[in-house]
Backbone:
């Protein structure tokens, strides 16, 4: 038997070097002694009016986004929890897409739908012969909110819906028979039972909205800055590391506090209250009212999840005006020009890297991330699965979740301030990016692997052994088949996370070695139809790869209840 | 008075109920007895109004309940695993149905205490339902169903998930409580002993149909079909034939040729009651065979015996001295009490 200490050695070492050390550097800068004394940087940042404004907006948009997400997600959760209908499995798989879809791709997708030259505006301009786009959703709060709803409805759907679908329907039947009408049953029985799940989901949605980066950077424009965007701006554009570090310290305090609250709450959600298998709790759409509700809800979800992505794909093969293309006259209408252009270096720029090489680079980074996070995640998951009461496991379990509760930009900033000087100077190393990605991906890997490993009860192995299986055969015929799928799911998860990661990468990527999301951002922030088109082409490629990964995950996932 | 008239219900292609009809009189306890999957619980759901029947009607005091939602029927339903609200304590669980009736808080409190006393759990008001034992949960669920004075109480296998000794104790308690409160009740179970102890009348169900209705004595003494007999653990069924010879009906079977007064003719199924055999040779029918084995069952012992090509079981008091397995044995029985004949359709 390997001791938990030994198993945790590598994961803990990794966290110490690449999480705690960078974060402590950030705190050192913001709390440390400046020209104006101790904690000068932090004090100056906290007391400035602009910080208050940024923090206020960050909270405000997160609250609004969370409420709107609940408004869409709760009825959808009810539909999924209580009804059985054709195409449900497919729709369920589709709703996972937003969860792993890179933020930049989503932002770009909403831009093609609702932006100044998006489909909706183009159609309205055509229809009413308008000179300028009637809907100004880009650089507006509405655009941000929409993208956040797109992202996080899945979380409500999964967490609340799963919980809901396992609640014994006889509880509501018992209330009905005792004389309670539908309204009373809902408020006195269903709602109180669901409340912990709803609170936990809301908190998680709020955390994601609070630390949202790509969406706000792209759809918010210069008018709207959240803490996350402000840290990025202060670091990359203004090179003001003390302010950035102080903002990051504030961000860290907020997200960690919220994450701890979330962990507490989600622990309560898992309290068993006579949960039932799903097949028992679900009914068909029998009457016209339920059919109408289901129809409306499905239409809304499909519009929300599919329309932006379709719009993106369509726009990436459509050229609207030939005049503004940079060089050669290109054909109008359906075209593959944007894809062809991806491998051409037109500007002869020194920092320029052809986007196709960005794709290769991203795939390479993702491969390394998968390898690293499996290497670190497996021993951690194994130790956690073996004993929940071991003191080392009890200490490490919450520690493991810390990187998830830390914003990506803060992680990136930590790498910048800590890993560019001795003892650990990785400034010019390619390894910086996969290391950052691993930090984000490996808690997911552990979360996915632990339940699978735990499901192999020792009795199963003992049974195989008493039936005459050698230890090697036990591993081959019992452990691997049981864990293999989860291992694959974890790997695909790590892969897609690395592929889409933008916040940390934007901070630390070298200009000449951009990943795909960084390249998309560059294209989109430059003027011209060709740049825009190439951004969309790259986004579409990313979308396809990510969707494939998600479908694979959905196909392989064994456990019914998804963990985030 | 509750009338159940020709209820049909199917789920998809499987038919759960096929024309169920019976009545429940005021203050009567009717047991629905049948193997699991025979449609008992579905029928309760339909009476409660949780799902509509495909065909047929539920009538209470002459008025049809069709279209009346469950919360307006004034019935009580106690679920198999109780469905106690896990987010409420014992008091709030019991008070739920009273608050719906908009009774005054004092009245609610009085009734909660009263029903808790009735079910034998005084002082349990503030307990968390999740920490109660199975038997306590069962009593709380009963109290919750009884508190609003339902016109009809339905109990769906209320003792199903408890162990045997607890079950035997609670069934007596349950009967006392239902009698004391003059409660009209339908009791669903697959356990014949429970049904016999509790019920005034028993409705035996088999795959969505009523097989027999009668008092426990009726059903035990004259099961209406081989199915009912087998369900009551009487498994000595042998094939036979009734023929007329010289104006006298004769039953021809492994047991020999017996004069019989049954109206059926042709092929029949003959049930030999396991408790009717005697060792003293005083009956008219003699059964000779080899004793196969004994099994000890506490207050009784059971033997299996090979008679011709049939294996038959018989029960004797534990005090009866029996020969060892392998010995030849002759039993006798009185055909009037010991034999039941079912025509083969």
Residues:
């Amino acid at each position: 038997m390997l001791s938990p200490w030994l198993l945790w050695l590598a994961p803990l070492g990794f966290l110490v070097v690449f999480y705690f050390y960078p974060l402590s550097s950030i705190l050192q800068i913001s709390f440390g002694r400046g020209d104006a004394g101790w904690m000068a940087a932090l004090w100056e940042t906290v007391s400035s009016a602009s910080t208050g404004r940024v923090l206020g907006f960050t909270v405000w948009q997160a609250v609004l986004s969370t409420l709107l997400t609940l408004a869409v997600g709760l009825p959808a959760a009810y539909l999924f929890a209580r009804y059985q209908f054709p195409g449900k499995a497919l729709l369920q798989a589709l709703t996972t897409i937003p969860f792993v879809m890179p933020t930049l791709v989503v932002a770009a997708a909403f831009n093609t739908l609702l932006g100044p030259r998006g489909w909706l505006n183009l159609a309205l301009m055509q229809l009413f012969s308008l000179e300028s786009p009637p809907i100004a959703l880009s650089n507006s709060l509405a655009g941000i909110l929409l993208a956040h709803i797109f992202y996080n409805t899945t979380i409500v759907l999964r967490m609340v819906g799963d919980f809901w679908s396992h609640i014994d329907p006889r509880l509501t039947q018992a209330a009905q028979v005792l004389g309670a009408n539908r309204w009373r049953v809902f408020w006195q029985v269903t709602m109180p039972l669901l409340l912990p799940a709803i609170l936990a989901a809301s908190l998680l949605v709020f955390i994601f909205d609070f630390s949202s980066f790509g969406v706000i950077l792209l759809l918010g424009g210069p008018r709207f800055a959240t803490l996350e965007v402000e840290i990025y701006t202060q670091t990359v554009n203004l090179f003001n590391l003390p302010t950035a570090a102080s903002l990051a310290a504030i961000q860290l305090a907020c997200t960690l506090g919220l994450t701890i609250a979330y962990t507490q709450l989600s622990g309560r959600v898992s309290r068993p209250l006579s949960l039932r298998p799903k097949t028992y709790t679900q009914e068909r759409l029998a009457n016209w009212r339920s059919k109408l509700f289901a129809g409306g809800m499905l239409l809304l979800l499909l519009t929300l999840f599919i329309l932006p992505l379709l719009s993106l794909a369509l726009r990436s093969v459509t050229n609207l005006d030939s005049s503004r293309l940079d060089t050669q006259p290109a054909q109008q209408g359906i075209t593959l020009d944007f894809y062809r252009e991806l491998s051409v270096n037109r500007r002869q720029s020194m920092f320029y890297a052809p986007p196709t090489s960005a794709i290769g680079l991203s795939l390479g980074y993702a491969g390394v991330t998968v390898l690293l996070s499996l290497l670190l995640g497996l021993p951690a998951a194994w130790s956690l699965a073996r004993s929940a009461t071991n003191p080392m496991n009890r200490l490490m379990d919450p520690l493991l979740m810390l990187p998830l509760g830390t914003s990506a930009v803060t992680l990136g900033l930590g790498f910048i301030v800590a890993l560019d000087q001795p003892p650990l100077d990785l400034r010019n190393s390619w390894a910086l990016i996969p290391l950052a990605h691993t930090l984000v991906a490996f808690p997911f890997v552990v979360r996915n692997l632990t339940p699978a490993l735990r499901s192999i009860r020792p009795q199963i192995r003992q049974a195989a052994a008493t039936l005459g299986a050698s230890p090697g055969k036990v591993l081959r015929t019992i452990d691997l088949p049981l864990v293999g799928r989860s291992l694959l799911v974890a790997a695909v998860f790590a892969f897609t996370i690395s592929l889409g990661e933008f916040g940390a990468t934007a901070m630390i990527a070298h200009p000449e070695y951009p990943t795909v999301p960084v390249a998309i951002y560059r294209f989109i922030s430059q003027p011209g139809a060709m740049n825009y088109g190439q951004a969309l082409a790259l986004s579409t490629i990313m979308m396809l790869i990510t969707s494939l990964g998600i479908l694979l995950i959905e196909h392989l996932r064994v456990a019914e209840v998804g963990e985030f | 008075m509750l009338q159940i008239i020709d209820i049909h219900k199917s789920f998809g292609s499987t038919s759960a109920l096929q024309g169920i009809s019976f009545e429940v009189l005021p203050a009567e306890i009717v047991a629905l007895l049948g193997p699991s999957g025979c449609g008992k619980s579905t029928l309760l759901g339909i009476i409660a109004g949780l799902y509509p029947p495909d065909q047929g009607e539920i009538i209470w005091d002459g008025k049809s309940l069709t279209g009346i939602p469950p919360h307006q029927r004034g019935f009580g339903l106690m679920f198999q695993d109780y469905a106690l609200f896990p987010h409420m304590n014992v008091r709030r669980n019991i008070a739920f149905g009273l608050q719906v009736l908009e009774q005054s808080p004092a009245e609610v409190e009085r009734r909660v205490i009263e029903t808790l006393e009735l079910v034998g759990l005084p002082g349990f008001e503030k307990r968390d339902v999740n920490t109660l034992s199975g038997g306590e949960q069962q009593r709380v669920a009963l109290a919750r169903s009884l508190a609003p004075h339902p016109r009809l109480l339905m109990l769906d296998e209320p003792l199903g998930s408890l162990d045997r000794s607890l079950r035997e104790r609670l069934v007596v308690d349950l009967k006392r409580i239902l009698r004391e409160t003059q409660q009209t009740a339908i009791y669903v179970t697959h356990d014949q002993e429970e049904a016999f102890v509790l019920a005034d009348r028993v409705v035996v169900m088999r795959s969505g149909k009523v097989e027999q209705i009668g008092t426990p004595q009726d059903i035990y003494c004259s099961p209406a079909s081989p199915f009912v007999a087998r369900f009551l653990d009487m498994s000595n069924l042998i094939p036979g034939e009734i023929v007329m010879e010289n104006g006298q009906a004769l039953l021809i079977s492994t047991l020999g040729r017996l004069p019989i007064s049954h109206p059926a003719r042709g092929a029949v199924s003959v049930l030999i009651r396991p408790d009717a055999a005697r060792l003293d040779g005083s009956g008219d029918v003699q059964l000779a065979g080899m004793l196969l084995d004994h099994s000890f069952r506490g207050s009784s012992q059971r033997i299996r015996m090979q008679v011709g090509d049939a294996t038959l079981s018989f029960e004797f008091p534990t005090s009866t001295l029996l020969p060892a397995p392998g010995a030849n044995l002759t039993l006798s029985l009185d055909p009037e009490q010991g034999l039941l004949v079912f025509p083969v359709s």
DSSP finds nine helices and 19 strands in chain B. Residues 237-343 of chain B form a domain with the OB fold (Dihydrolipoamide Acetyltransferase, E2P) fold (CATH 2.40.50.140). The first helix of chain B runs from residue 40 to 48.
